[in-house]
């Protein structure tokens, strides 16, 4: 697991990339949001997140005061239940991004304009 100021382990980085892509898909597509609300556990599985057998997935939709950190997302996911943080709205207007930039965010590619978005969601 990643500690503050440390580069994420490959498995952690893969998890964070999938998590970020999942958030963007919910913000970008109302159908994805409906699927998330209907069955958060199945949505997490479909997004490629590691859901442990018999472990509950709890959805948190509240806006955060500040940024999510990689450590917070990993810790909350790996606790006694999986906590899936998906704020109801992104911290920026993602409609301002073109398809290439959205794909870069979903794929975890670091580009200057895209880094701002990822920092709003996950501070790696």
Can you describe this structure?
This protein has 124 residues and is mainly alpha-helical. The protein contains six helices and two strands; from the N terminus they run αααβαβαα. It has helices at 10-28, 30-38, 40-46, 70-77, 99-107, 112-121; strands at residues 57-60, 82-85. The protein has a two-stranded parallel sheet with strand order 1-2. Helix 4 links the parallel strand 1 and strand 2. Helix 2 (30-38) packs across helix 3 (40-46) and helix 5 (99-107) packs across helix 6. It is globular. The two termini are 12 Å apart. The model is unreliable at 1-8 and 107-124 (pLDDT under 50).
Q: How many β-strand stretches?
A: 2
Q: Extract low-pLDDT stretches.
A: 1-8, 107-124
Order of helices and strands: HHHEHEHH
Instruction: Determine the structural class based on helices, strands and strand pairing.
Output: mainly alpha
Report the end-to-end length measured between terminal Cα atoms: 12 Å
Query: What is the helical fraction, as a range of percent?
Result: 40-55%
How many helical elements? 6
- Overall pLDDT score: 76
What's the story with the biggest beta sheet?
2 strands, parallel
Hey, roughly how much beta strand do the residues contain?
A: 5-15%
Strand order of the largest sheet: 1-2
Shape: globular
Radius of gyration: 14 Å
Protein name: Nitrile hydratase alpha /Thiocyanate hydrolase gamma domain-containing protein
Organism: Paractinoplanes ferrugineus
Provide the fold topology:
Elements: H1 10-28, H2 30-38, H3 40-46, E1 57-60, H4 70-77, E2 82-85, H5 99-107, H6 112-121
Parallel strand pairs: 1-2
Helix pairs in contact: 1-2, 1-5, 2-3, 5-6
């Amino acid at each position: 697991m990643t500690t503050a100021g440390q580069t994420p382990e490959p498995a952690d980085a893969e998890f964070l990339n999938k998590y970020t892509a999942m958030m963007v898909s919910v913000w970008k597509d109302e159908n994805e949001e409906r699927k998330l609300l209907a069955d958060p556990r199945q949505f997490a599985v479909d997004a490629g997140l590691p859901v442990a057998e018999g472990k509950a997935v709890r959805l948190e939709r509240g806006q955060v005061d500040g940024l999510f950190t990689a450590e917070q997302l990993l810790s909350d996911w790996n606790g006694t239940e999986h906590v899936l943080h998906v704020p109801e709205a992104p911290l920026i207007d993602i409609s301002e991004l073109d398809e290439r930039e959205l794909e870069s965010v979903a794929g975890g590619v670091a580009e200057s304009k895209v880094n701002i978005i990822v920092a709003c969601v996950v501070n790696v």
